[in-house]
Write a structure and sequence with these properties.
Distance between the termini: 22 Å
Strand content: 25-35%
Number of helices: 13
Number of domains: 2
Radius of gyration: 22 Å
Structural class: alpha+beta
């Protein structure tokens, strides 16, 4: 079965786009989600809100609030239905960075047979929540972001498509400019041919991919099941770190003493660290942790996040997966309020350098997985722009 195909989709109309397009619920804090839901009744976040993060939003056999929110948008004409399956070019412009990718459908079987590889361990609770959501809401808009090795032919073709008039152009509530083009028949055929020559790697959306795969397995692996994806060349992807905060109180003198057996611990000047180093904010000041023995191991074993897990969080602080004391923070977030919270509760903050894309590929090719929330990937395609129709994974 061909891996990458045209996707049968509806596209949000230009009149509704700015109001409907929404960040994925899992990139927002609970307070941010609640504020967006209260402020904008048209946000697609009303369809995708996590039932575990926001209890009470699934309240009936048909999916409750989420399915009603989607039906409301469809009934009010927020989406245009295209007559044929299509290949789209999707571009996001935010600050000084532009990301251009191809939106198409990817055969779910490719997630099982190695044509698409992931690199991050998933949390079963989150996968189960998505499976329940998919059972109740019968269209998918949450794109899984994939990347492949840079391909001049794909870049040339997307540039060519972008020279034609856009199907959709708008600026979302967060100030990100977004554009969608529908590729013509020849361009679509060429794009699909080149994309099907590549192995693809999950950049963002491991839980969505795992939920799609679980639904597909449960339903007997039906042929033609697909998941809507945004596919990017490797040079269109940027990686950032996730930092770790441990809620207090933490016995800092004892921690620093214990760290000294495996690390050279000295005063630091801030959160930024280089590869192979760990930053630590504790008791009102910054420290720099340099491992006494640098790892040269391949794959997951050689990553900074593994070093932090194996030599600090687990043995010294007793942190395990799902521990409520652990808070994970994207590198791009302002750390000022986090530092203030550490000062208030006596907690600590560890900062990391982001893995490289080559690290991700190496981990994926070895069929290993990193800890959850090891990489913060940009771009993060918005929900509510595309609605996949046809054989998406669902009951």
């Amino acid at each position: 079965m061909t891996l990458v195909r045209a996707v049968r989709a509806r596209v949000v109309t230009s009149e509704w786009a700015a109001r409907v397009a929404s960040p994925l619920h899992d990139v927002l804090s609970e307070d941010e989600r609640r504020a967006m839901l209260a402020d904008n009744p048209d946000s697609y976040l009303h369809v995708t809100s996590d039932p575990l993060a926001l209890p009470g939003t699934l309240d009936g056999p048909e999916g409750g609030a989420q399915s009603r929110a989607l039906r409301r948008l469809l009934d009010q004409g927020a989406y245009q239905r295209l007559s044929e399956p299509s290949v789209f070019v999707y571009q996001m412009r935010e600050e000084d960075r532009q990301h251009t990718g191809v939106v198409a459908s990817v055969d779910v079987a490719g997630l099982a047979d190695g044509r698409v590889l992931g690199h991050e361990r998933v949390q079963d609770r989150r996968v189960e929540a998505l499976v329940r959501h998919y059972e109740r809401v019968n269209m998918r808009s949450e794109l899984v972001a994939l990347f492949h090795h840079a391909d001049p032919a794909v870049s040339e073709l997307t540039t060519q498509v972008c020279q034609s008039p856009a199907l959709l152009e708008f600026t979302d509530a967060g100030g990100t400019e977004q554009s969608v083009w529908r590729a013509g028949p020849e361009e679509s055929s060429d794009l699909l041919r080149h994309l099907n020559m590549h192995r693809h790697y999950i950049a963002d959306g491991h839980h969505r991919a795992a939920a799609a795969l679980r639904c597909w397995e449960r339903d007997g692996r039906p042929e033609g099941s697909s998941v809507a994806c945004a596919l990017y060349p490797q040079d269109e992807i940027s990686l950032h770190a996730f930092h770790r905060r441990v809620h207090g109180p933490v016995a800092v003198p004892e921690l620093l003493d214990a760290l000294s057996s495996a690390f050279d611990v000295r005063r630091g000047s801030g959160p930024a660290v280089g590869r192979g180093l760990i930053g630590l904010y504790a008791a009102g000041g910054w420290h720099l942790l340099t491992p006494r023995r640098r790892s040269s191991l391949p794959g997951v074993a050689g990553l900074d996040v593994t070093l932090l897990d194996d030599r600090v969080l687990r043995p010294l602080l007793g942190i395990r997966d799902g521990d409520p004391r652990l808070e994970v923070l994207p590198e791009l977030r302002d750390l000022t309020p986090v530092i203030a919270t550490c000062d208030e509760d006596g907690g600590v903050l560890f900062t990391l350098h982001a893995p490289s894309l080559d690290d991700l590929v190496a981990v994926a090719e070895r069929h290993e997985v990193m800890s959850p929330k090891s990489t913060y990937v940009q771009p993060k395609p918005r929900t509510g722009i595309f609605l996949q129709e046809g054989r998406a994974p669902t009951r």
